[in-house]
Amino acid sequence: MSEILAGLNAAQKRAVEHVHGPVLALAGPGSGKTRVLTHRIAYMIQQCGIAPTSILAVTFTNKAAREMRDRLTHILGEEITQRITIGTFHSLGARWLRRYGDAVGLPANWVIYDDDDQQRLIRRITKELHVPERPFTPRNIMSAISSAKNEGLDATEYAKTVRTPESRIYATCFQRYSEMLVQAGAVDFDDLLLKSVALLAHPKVRAHLQRTYTYLLVDEYQDTNQVQYEMVQQLAAQSRNLFVVGDDDQSIYGWRGANVRNIRQFESDFPGAEVIILGENYRSTQPILDVAQQLIDAAPHRPYRKILQSQQPTGEAVYWQECADQNDESQRVCDIIEHLVKRGLTTYGECAIMYRTNAQSRSFEEALARRRIPYVVVGGMRFYERSEIKDMLAWLRVVFNPSDAVSLQRVLDAYAEGIGATSIGHVQAWADDQQTTLYAALIAVATDSSAAPLLKGAARQRVMRFAARLHHVVKQVAEMPLVELFDYVVVEMQVEAYLERAFGRDEARTRLENINELQRVADEYAALPRDEQLGQFLAEVALVADVDVLDRQVDRQHQVVCITMHQAKGLEYDNVFLVGLEDTIIPHVRTHNDPQQIEEERRILYVGITRARRRLYLSRAQRRMVFGNTENTRRSRFIQALPMDMFAVVTRQGQVAPRSQQAGAIDAFRSWGARSTTPPPANALPEFAVGDQVRHQRFGDGIVLAAKVVDDDVEVVVRFADKVVGEKKLIASFARLQKITTS
């Protein structure tokens, strides 16, 4: 017994020793919950004489299941560990359905359809039912079906809930999808859970499983959805020997069906349950935990408060810095990473840059690549590998060089609605016969009835219309600056409408955010002569994309990690950089009207903060390009609510607040602000007064309505003569306004 309990703190010992009855272990970040789970199982077997075969341990990932099994093997030996049932909800469902599947109508030889199998089946269904391809993509249909199943709804039950024409189409596809799964003797991953719940509704099967597994342990209980919750309730109803471990403060997967109420109502579900709080932290220093504590304590409606207490009571202060813009922010992060590594204080692999949305990765990827700092983007595509970015760059390459057949083909595949491979094949074949380019052949079709004679009827008309639009866009390259050309392509080729048709409104917004970020990059070339802007932009973007492949040759342990806060859950790093902490990013602007979603955003930031072991750096950009305009930002409301004396505040001039000196700040962190020059004296700032007539490179002439100094710059409100442009709020140093006359 001494070996099993050795090294456990008081709360951990209680969680291990309280074997019988329902137990809720609320495990704060870094509190050793995996150790508690494994030592509890070992204690049950070695000290309480509980049979290994009566223990069921449920995890959320195969990795977690493997780690638990490995630890138990080390403690108990392989023979005993093999007799314990350990697995994910899905793997357990598959095991039970294999044995009892006939009770829910499955044949003995049923198969599991993976993601690709599902998409192929959905494509057959949409073709059979003549469902429009946009926005009813296989991915969108699969998402709708999965969301319904996660709520415990089958096709018939889902059909009763629909209210809109769009959802009725999803319901029709769901019904046909279910029928075809039955015909094929197949289940998808969601069915492994949904049919397991149906299986547990059979009294004999439920009674057998309840007798078999009299002790149930569930990890990450805060992440359970409705179906998983029902599985646990059914399995534990008889013995009530249920041990769940989790943290309601780390429930961040509401968007995929997880319900934080499941863990918060545990005492209601199991009256008399023992509640044990694991608050002692073995990961982070106390200054990091102090910030996390202040953040999460401000959340309303928390039934359980955990006091985060570190085993490392001292440590460096948490650093806060406000940067000029996202480029400045990314450069400063690179500065400190380089400084820490060069001084031997850390490795690249112990540095993680975390952000709320994937679109934020672009400036950091570019900065890291230019510095030749090895990095990896975890769990998502690199910015320049995303399809909408590749499509947009393809447009610009075609405008720049119409003979670029590869880019033109990509444009045709993505944007030429109603023009199929056969039609393009006819045009390409004629181009080959005439020894001309595909672009020239398309223009010929639009102007010469004898071109591509095999292309006829409605198909020819569609090609002619597209070719005319394409030619019109190409002609603008010599007439417009790069950013204006960018805007022109987006509007003229109806990029936003295409994205909505192709991916649905919600996904389209995310992809449009990425395109807007690319436009911000394009704006950086506005100072070049007009005829050099596009070529220079395309060349430098290509270089950045090529440099991206460098990290593939580097061991992942020696790469800076770029990762979203969602993806970082369960991970930890010595040095964490939480970036873009602005009020439209975290909390995300889409959540601002929903208090529950706002609180999930708070928990996302909490998860990000508690990934840091030794050093934590928080930052935001004071100005950010949004939909082509540079806008001032506000601090995230979560940061704004924290006492600033908790932070070592790094100014733009490289000065650090006194608290950081007391907390043992290192010189490297005091160099964060060193890039910025001393702000210019007041008389060096551009002067604008109400009534001044000004000229903007893109927006034309206008009149100043207001002007004020903001953050060492001048914010100007201008009403432009072009009514389409209207009034704009601009930052003088970014807008490069030219004063024509004074008031």
Taking all Cα atoms into account, the compactness measure Rg is 30 Å
Largest β sheet strand count, sense and barrel closure:
7 strands, parallel
Helical segment tally?
32
Question: Percent range for helical residues?
Answer: 40-55%
Shape summary: globular
Strand content: 15-25%
Number of strands: 24
Gap between N and C termini, in Å?
A: 86 Å
Catalogue the unreliable spans.
Answer: 545-555, 660-684
Structural class: alpha/beta
**Taking all residues together, what is the mean pLDDT?**
86
As laid out across the biggest beta sheet, the strand order is 13-14-12-15-16-11-19
Written description of the protein model:
This protein is 46% helix and 16% strand. The chain contains 32 helices and 24 strands. Helix 2 (10-17) crosses helix 3, helix 6 (89-100) packs across helix 11 and helix 19 packs across helix 20 (405-415). It is globular and about 85 Å long.
Key traits:
alpha/beta, six-stranded parallel sheet, 743 residues
Topology:
Blueprint: H1 2-5, H2 10-17, E1 23-27, H3 33-46, E2 55-59, H4 62-76, H5 78-81, E3 85-88, H6 89-100, E4 111-112, H7 115-128, H8 138-150, H9 155-159, H10 165-184, E5 186-187, H11 189-200, H12 203-212, E6 215-218, H13 226-236, E7 242-246, H14 261-264, H15 266-269, E8 274-278, E9 280-285, H16 286-297, E10 309-312, E11 318-323, H17 326-342, E12 351-355, H18 361-370, E13 375-377, H19 387-400, H20 405-415, H21 421-434, H22 438-447, H23 457-474, H24 482-492, H25 495-503, H26 505-523, H27 530-547, E14 560-564, E15 573-578, H28 595-609, E16 612-621, E17 623-626, E18 629-632, H29 637-640, E19 647-650, H30 658-662, H31 667-670, E20 693-696, E21 700-710, E22 713-720, E23 727-731, H32 732-735, E24 738-741
Parallel strand pairs: 1-7, 1-8, 2-3, 2-6, 4-5, 6-7, 9-10, 11-16, 11-19, 12-14, 12-15, 13-14, 15-16
Antiparallel strand pairs: 17-18, 20-21, 20-24, 21-22, 22-23
